[in-house]
């Protein structure tokens, strides 16, 4: 099959993890011999010798939709038509493109949309709803997200892809009894969505009573400067900045407990990556991950979003090394799921 992937997130020079989960999906769609081309509607991507890419730096709004449609037409010309147009995250621009292509090609092209966007748990844009409604195929990256989209048609659950751990990189300290515990946060430093200040408020209390414990924050974002300044007096707090996926995985080997304090998550790859590398996880009660990671003894979903509960759990949790395995999230498994979905 010839597949055009229409994406708005892709790794960039500034953020090599931005949209890496979509890049993995594209790679998985090629595994069974499909020919692919990627049209990127978002930020300027890192140059890639692995994928055929068309980058569209168009403006937002209706005038930008026309330019984005032209980029899809260029992809059609480059690949020589296509069997599947796979949209990763619907909005008004993708709805416009779908309508234009349906009028032109009818049933010659099958239109598919994969949803990973958290706005489905709040107020999804009308464009996202319209994209889901007029697509031929729909999928979601978690069962909870699937449930939100099913009113617009049949939806299939196809998870994100987790890279299998390389245990040769695990450090000996992961299996030794230690006096201290190493806590970890990984994500964008955007307080409104990731709840960084809630973690740091809890740490202000915890670090006084457990002076040997360490908290490391990996990531960057618009709130980094203000949060560093506000919490500059906290002890045993390490800011490590943004890292690529392999560097994040390396960090995990030297930590014991991951803290997730997000208000909303649809899948949360970092939870799965941490669990597979033997970390325990404390997470807010996000419905997306709760529907993905079920009945896991090293994962605690909090009952509330309040720092008081986080302080209690951080005090009580014990470090241990019990790595989990999620074979259903491997690239080979997702490749088969995508191929079956495309053919349905």
3D architecture notes:
With 344 residues, the protein is of the alpha/beta class. It has two domains: 2-162 and 328-342, Glycogen Phosphorylase B (Rossmann fold); 167-316, Rossmann fold, CATH 3.40.50.2000. Helix content is 38%, strand content 17%. It contains 13 helices and 13 strands. The strands form two sheets. A seven-stranded parallel beta sheet has the order 3-2-1-4-5-6-7, sandwiched between helices. The chain has a six-stranded parallel beta sheet with strand order 10-9-8-11-12-13, with helices on both faces. The longest helix is centred in the N-terminal third of the chain and has 18 residues, at 62-79. The radius of gyration is 21 Å and the shape is elongated. The model has no long low-confidence stretch (mean pLDDT 93).
In DSSP terms, counting alpha (H) and pi (I) runs of 4 or more, how many helices?
13
How far apart are the termini? 13 Å
Instruction: Label the overall shape.
Output: elongated
Give the helices and strands as they follow along the chain: EHEEHEHEHEHEEHHEHEHEHEHEHH
Oligomer: single chain
| Low-confidence region ranges | none
List the helices and strands and how they pair.
Elements (H helix, E strand, L loop, with lengths): L1 E6 L12 H11 L4 E6 L12 E3 L6 H18 L4 E5 L3 H14 L4 E6 L10 H9 L2 E4 L2 H7 L6 E2 L24 E5 L4 H4 L1 H14 L4 E5 L5 H7 L6 E5 L3 H9 L3 E4 L8 H8 L3 E4 L3 H6 L6 E3 L5 H10 L14 H12 L2
Parallel strand pairs: 1-2, 1-4, 2-3, 4-5, 5-6, 6-7, 8-9, 8-11, 9-10, 11-12, 12-13
Helix pairs in contact: 1-13, 2-3, 3-4, 7-12
């Amino acid at each position: 099959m010839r597949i055009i992937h229409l994406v708005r997130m892709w790794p960039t020079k500034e953020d090599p993890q931005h949209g890496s989960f979509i890049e993995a999906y594209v790679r998985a769609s090629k595994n069974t011999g499909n020919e692919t081309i990627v049209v990127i509607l978002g930020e300027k991507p890192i140059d890639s010798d692995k994928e055929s890419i068309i980058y569209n730096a168009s403006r937002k709004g209706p005038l930008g939709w026309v330019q984005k449609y032209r980029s899809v037409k260029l992809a059609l010309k480059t690949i020589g038509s296509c069997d599947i147009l796979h949209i990763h995250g619907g909005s008004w621009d993708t709805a416009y493109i779908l309508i234009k292509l349906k009028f032109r090609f009818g049933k010659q092209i099958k239109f598919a949309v994969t949803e990973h966007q958290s706005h489905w748990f709040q107020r999804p844009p009308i464009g996202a709803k319209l994209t889901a409604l007029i697509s031929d195929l729909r999928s979601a990256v978690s069962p909870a997200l699937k449930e939100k989209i099913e009113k617009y048609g049949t939806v299939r659950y196809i998870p994100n892809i987790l890279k299998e751990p390389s245990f040769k990189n695990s450090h000996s300290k992961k299996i030794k009894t230690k006096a201290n515990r190493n806590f970890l946060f990984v994500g964008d430093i955007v307080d409104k969505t990731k709840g960084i200040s809630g973690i740091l408020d809890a740490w202000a209390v915890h670090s006084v009573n457990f002076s040997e414990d360490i908290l490391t924050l990996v990531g960057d974002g618009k709130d980094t400067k203000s949060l560093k300044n506000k919490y500059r007096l906290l002890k045993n707090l390490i800011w490590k900045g943004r890292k690529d996926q392999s560097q994040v995985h390396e960090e995990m080997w030297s930590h014991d407990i991951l803290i997730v304090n997000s208000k909303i998550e649809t899948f949360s790859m970092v939870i799965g990556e941490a669990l597979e590398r033997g970390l325990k996880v404390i997470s807010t009660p996000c419905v997306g991950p709760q529907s993905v990671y079920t009945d896991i003894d090293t994962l605690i979903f909090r009952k509330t979003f309040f720092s008081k509960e986080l302080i209690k759990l951080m005090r009580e949790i014990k470090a241990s090394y019990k790595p989990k395995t999620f074979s259903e999230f491997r690239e080979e498994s997702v490749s088969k799921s995508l191929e079956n979905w495309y053919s349905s």
